[in-house]
Each structure stands twice: as structure tokens, then as C-alpha cells.
Write a structure and sequence with these properties.
Length: about 450
């Protein structure tokens, strides 16, 4: 082992045998991998597809890499066969055989032609592009084949993963899209007439284009995993698909809302007519009550009662026409708006009636208080008291005459209460502040 050459110290027989065994195992593993790559479904699909874009560029280079891989493998096989033949000459190899085997197993003993078309199209792996050949050691050649194999397998696995995932999902979404389009058409959701109809057209165009792109350029839809160097490390990029799936779901919800309108449109229209009718009747009652108040109550301000808004009746008529023409997509938002406006109108009418009839309510409250104190006086045996009878008659005349001055009438009721309290011995009724203050004594 003291003699050396460019390949290093001369190997002994045991080292040679171990090296041949290791290289033989590597040869078997590489052959198995190359055959598996050759039979990979993704590779067969790439060979038969009409590719475009980044996939076309990378597959052209990968095809050349695979061809070069087989060239390297053939050279590796020939060199390993030659080494085995030399070792098989003698049971105990001579020194000349060991020197030759050392050169074959450790030195750059493998020559690969570099001028072939495959080499020219492959990724730049040769150390000196343009050279007619390059020499490798067997271990160096294994490293080169492993590198080429990893790059080739990465392209094949990535393309196959995209083709296995995206086209089928796009087809399923497209089928759902067609069902949604038919349903949308049945309820009047059409392009140019409803935003959801325009969305369906856009989704259709996008899915059609997306499928074409995925089939012809699958690697454009491959998202490599960060920090991963393993072949096929990543996942299909479903960004565009996911966006369109969400958009279709939004359209389906919109159509569901339209369908709901179609199912209960008549019932909602009946409720709307009823609410608006009640609002009109309440306003009519308020106008009648205002005339009564102006005739019966003096020295008070009565708010003016406006008429019913005609715009709501016009919108209600439009809603009924939309229902008759099955324009559900237009009826839906109009009904929602009308329902809120009708409730607001009914509330406004009730508030108007309450405001208009407030003076009558005050008069009724004063009458009730006066009669309650008269009954209390009678229970104490003072019903015939001249002073109390005079105070009672004065207050009653004011409250039962028209027009009634509420402020004067309230003072008359208070005077009767005070007189009754003094005679009965009850606590004096507190002074009231006016018609607005209704804190009468309870009996």
C-alpha cells in the first residue's frame, strides 16, 4: 500500500471487493429508480401533453436530463462491468490488477461524451460546457446521476400532483356552476339584469381558462414548500380555484334569498298592504281626532296630521308587478325596503294620533280625578256641603263645556280637592304645575 498513483494508495483485495459490492448496490438502486421514473404516470402524461409556458420549458430540459441520465447509467454500467471482469481474472489479484482496479474504482476512469443533443439541452451540469467529453470517477458519476434524477423527478411529481388535484376539482365546480346557472335563470337572475348573473358569467370564463392553463402548464400552479429540497416538495396552488369557489358560494346564497322571496312573496305583500292600511286608518283617525280636539279644547296647540305618503303605495304597486312578472331578483330588495318603511309609517301614524289626542286624555284624567274626589267626599258624609258642592259644580262646568280651557279647569279641580281635604282632615293636595303635571291624589 506504500506505492501511490493519482487515484491514491493502491487498494488491497478486501477494499476492492467492498467497493465493488457498494457500487453494485448503488447500480441496482439507480437502475430501479430510473425504471420507476420511466414508468411514472406523470412522465407519460408530460410526454403526451401539449405543454405551454414554464412547464414546456422545464419539461424540455427534463427530457434531456432523463436521456443524459441513461447515458451516464450506461457508462457507469460499463465501467462497473469492466472492474468486475478484472477482479474475476484471478482469485488472488496481482499487484498489476489491484493498480488497475484502484484506477477504475477511485480515479476518473469513466469518460462520457458531451457533444450529444441531450447534453446540450440538459441543465448545465458539466463543468466545462462545450467540451466534447468529460471524465468522472464512479462515485462522482453517482452523485451527478442523483442530482439529475432529483431534478427530473421533481418536475414529474409536481406536474402529476397538479394534474391529479386541480382538473377534477375544477370539473366538479363547473358542474355545480351549471346547476346554479339553471336555477338562477329560473328565478330571473340573468347577465345584464342582476349582478349575480354577471358573476356567474365571469366565474364561467375564469374556470374555463383556468382548466386550460392547468392542463397545458401545470407547473405554473405548483407552490414549492419553503425550505424543502425533496423532489415534489410542495402542493398545488389553488388560489384562483378557491377564489372562484367562494364567489360561486356567494352567488348561491343570493339565489337562495331570491328563492325565499318567490316562496313567500304573496304573504309578505299581504302583510305590507295590511300594515300600510292600518297606518292610513290611524292617520285618518288622528285627523278626525284633531278636529274634535280643536272644537272641544281651548288654548292649546294641536299638531297638524300629514297625509299618507303616496310613494309607498307606488312602490307597493311596483312590488306586486314584479311578482306578477316573476322578477324575483328585483322584488327581493324592494320588499325588504318596503317592510321597514311600512313599519316606520305605522309608528309615525300612531305617534301622530297620540300627540293629537293628548289634550282629550288630559281632560279625561281631570274628569276622573274630580269624580273620584266627589265619591270620597260622599263616603265621609260631606256630599251636601254647600261649599264643596259649589266648588264641584264650578269644576264640572269647565270640564264638560266646550271649548274647555284645560289650565283653568285643572285649577278648579285642584281647588275642589283642597277644600275637600281640609274638611275631611286629609293631607293637603300639593299644588300642581299645570296641565303638563298630572300627579293627582289617588283614592
Amino acid at each position: 500500500m506504500g506505492v501511490t498513483d493519482p487515484a491514491g494508495p493502491v487498494m488491497d483485495r478486501d477494499e476492492v471487493d467492498r467497493a465493488l459490492a457498494r457500487l453494485g448496490a448503488e447500480h441496482e438502486a439507480i437502475e430501479t429508480s430510473l425504471l420507476a421514473l420511466q414508468d411514472h404516470a406523470g412522465r407519460r402524461l408530460l410526454e403526451g401533453a401539449e405543454l405551454t409556458g414554464v412547464t414546456q420549458e422545464r419539461w424540455t430540459a427534463t427530457e434531456a436530463s432523463i436521456t443524459l441520465l441513461w447515458t451516464y447509467f450506461d457508462a457507469y454500467t460499463a465501467a462497473l462491468r469492466g472492474a468486475r471482469e478484472i477482479r474475476a481474472r484471478r482469485r488472488w489479484s496481482s499487484r498489476e490488477d489491484l493498480v488497475e482496479l484502484t484506477e477504475l474504482l477511485r480515479g476518473e476512469s469513466v469518460t462520457v461524451a458531451g457533444g450529444a443533443t441531450a447534453t446540450a439541452n440538459a441543465p448545465t451540469l458539466l463543468s466545462a460546457p462545450g467540451r466534447l467529453s468529460e471524465r468522472f470517477s464512479l462515485s462522482g458519476l453517482v452523485d451527478r446521476m442523483n442530482e439529475l434524477y432529483a431534478r427530473s423527478l421533481d418536475v414529474v411529481v409536481a406536474a402529476d400532483a397538479v394534474w391529479s388535484a386541480l382538473p377534477a376539482r375544477i370539473d366538479l365546480l363547473a358542474a355545480e356552476l351549471q346547476r346554479t346557472r339553471k336555477l338562477a335563470h329560473s328565478v330571473g337572475v340573468r347577465p345584464g339584469e342582476h349582478p349575480a348573473g354577471d358573476d356567474l358569467e365571469r366565474i364561467t370564463r375564469t374556470l374555463t381558462k383556468l382548466r386550460e392553463q392547468v392542463v397545458s402548464d401545470p407547473l405554473a400552479f405548483w407552490a414549492r414548500a419553503e425550505g424543502s429540497s425533496a423532489p415534489g416538495g410542495g402542493r398545488p396552488d389553488t388560489t384562483v380555484y378557491d377564489r372562484e369557489a367562494r364567489a360561486l358560494e356567494d352567488v348561491r346564497r343570493e339565489i337562495d334569498a331570491v328563492l325565499t322571496v318567490r316562496q313567500d312573496a304573496e304573504q309578505r305583500l299581504v302583510r305590507l298592504r295590511d300594515v300600510l292600511s292600518r297606518a292610513d286608518r290611524t292617520l285618518a283617525e288622528a285627523r278626525t281626532a284633531r278636529g274634535e280636539v280643536l272644537a272641544k279644547i281651548a288654548a292649546t296647540e294641536v299638531p297638524v296630521v300629514s297625509g299618507p305618503p303616496t310613494v309607498l303605495q307606488e312602490q307597493l304597486a311596483a312590488a306586486a308587478e314584479y311578482r306578477r312578472q316573476a322578477q324575483w331578483h328585483r322584488l327581493s330588495p324592494l320588499l325588504e325596503s318596503l317592510e321597514q318603511k311600512a313599519e316606520d309609517e305605522l309608528l309615525r301614524a300612531r305617534e301622530s294620533l297620540t300627540a293629537v289626542t293628548a289634550p282629550l286624555a288630559v281632560r279625561a284624567e281631570l274628569r276622573g280625578r274630580l269624580d273620584a274626589y266627589k265619591a270620597k267626599v260622599a263616603r265621609h258624609g260631606l256630599a251636601e256641603d254647600p261649599f264643596l258642592v259649589e266648588r264641584y259644580d264650578a269644576a264640572r262646568r269647565m270640564l264638560w263645556s266646550a271649548p274647555c280651557d284645560l289650565r283653568v279647569a285643572e285649577q278648579a279641580v285642584l281647588r275642589y280637592q283642597h277644600a275637600a281635604a281640609e274638611l275631611i282632615g286629609a293631607p293637603r293636595v300639593p299644588q300642581q304645575g299645570g296641565p303638563e303635571d298630572r300627579r293627582g291624589e289617588q283614592t
